[in-house]
């Protein structure tokens, strides 16, 4: 079934309708996205996969309300998105941490900007979960890549978002750390049930975390194929024959683009 023909259900959080976006550069107009349609429901996850330059980050920034589409509409709870909604948290590929601030200051930054109460008891529970509660007073350069990513996740999750947007969150990590953080993200989702959209180049990561996998391609980028993957984020999915079958399915879709 075409996603846009799905009824506008009560749990729909995000709907992109015919979104196109170009950037004006010194070399002229760069078309990043063309007529992208997609839906994400509350408490569901999706992964965006596709080659470099096909507009994945642009789509995430539009979902965050940080870029405006030239054409089409980005709806959040059935309303056109005019500015970044409070319910959305975004982590960038380079972690986006301030090097001159301690972990503590980085983690509480979003709450301070929003003038929200800072409940350190709750924050410490989250930091314990992320295994960084002993790093509060250090600066990001004293942390490993995996720890920096955990701090970035903490900074997003303390905002208690309904929608968590992750742009290639674990790309810079070694395989083992990457897999640990994928499981941690899945576990946090199982506990908190935010909606999540994740950009990744990594097929296994997409299959592990995305209940709907959007395969993107082209310049300008479009969504070429949607793969349903309802077992994503389940504790016992990774490494099963069904998991590897789904990886093959996504891989064959990506090979059609290459
Ligand atoms: P992806 O994340 O899939 O690699 P992007 O969304 O970053 O793709 O980029 C899509 C296209 O838009 C690319 O051609 C890229 O060079 C261009 N682009 C992205 N952001 C900007 C920007 N701020 N200014 C100009 N061009 C941009
Ligand atoms: Mg990108």
Brief summary of the model shown:
The chain is of the alpha/beta class. The chain contains seven helices and ten strands.
Structure description:
The structure is a single chain. Helix 2 packs parallel to helix 4 and helix 6 crosses helix 7. The model has no long low-confidence stretch (mean pLDDT 92). 33% of the residues lie in helices and 27% in strands. The chain has 258 residues and is an alpha/beta fold. The two termini are 26 Å apart. The strands form two sheets. Strands 6-7-8-3-9-10 form a six-stranded mixed β-sheet, sandwiched between helices. It has a four-stranded antiparallel β-sheet with strand order 2-1-4-5. The chain is built from seven helices and ten strands. Bound molecules: adenosine-5'-diphosphate and magnesium ion. The site of magnesium ion (MG) has 2 residues, from helix 1. Magnesium ion binds next to helix 1.
């Amino acid at each position: 079934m075409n996603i846009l023909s799905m009824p506008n259900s009560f749990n729909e959080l995000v709907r992109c309708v015919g979104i196109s976006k170009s950037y004006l550069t010194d070399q002229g107009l760069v078309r990043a996205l063309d007529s992208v349609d997609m839906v994400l429901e509350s408490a569901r996850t999706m992964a965006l996969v596709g080659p470099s330059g096909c507009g994945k980050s642009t789509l995430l920034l539009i979902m965050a309300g940080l870029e405006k589409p030239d054409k089409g509409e980005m709806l959040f709870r059935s309303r056109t998105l005019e500015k970044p909604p409070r319910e959305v948290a975004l982590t960038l590929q380079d972690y986006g941490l301030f090097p001159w601030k301690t972990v503590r200051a980085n983690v509480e930054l979003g709450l301070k900007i929003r003038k929200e109460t800072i409940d350190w008891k709750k924050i410490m529970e989250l930091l314990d979960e992320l295994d960084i509660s002993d790093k509060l007073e250090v600066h990001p350069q004293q942390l490993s890549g995996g720890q920096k990513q955990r701090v970035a996740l903490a900074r997003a999750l303390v905002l208690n978002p309904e929608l968590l947007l992750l742009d290639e969150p674990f790309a810079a990590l070694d395989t083992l750390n990457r897999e640990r953080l994928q499981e941690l993200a899945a576990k946090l989702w199982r506990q908190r049930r935010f909606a999540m959209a994740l950009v990744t180049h990594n097929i296994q990561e997409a299959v592990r975390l995305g209940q709907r996998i959007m395969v993107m391609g082209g310049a300008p980028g479009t969504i070429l194929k949607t793969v349903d993957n309802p077992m994503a984020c389940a504790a016992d999915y990774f490494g099963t024959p069904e998991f590897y079958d789904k990886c093959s399915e996504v891989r064959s879709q990506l090979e059609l683009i290459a």
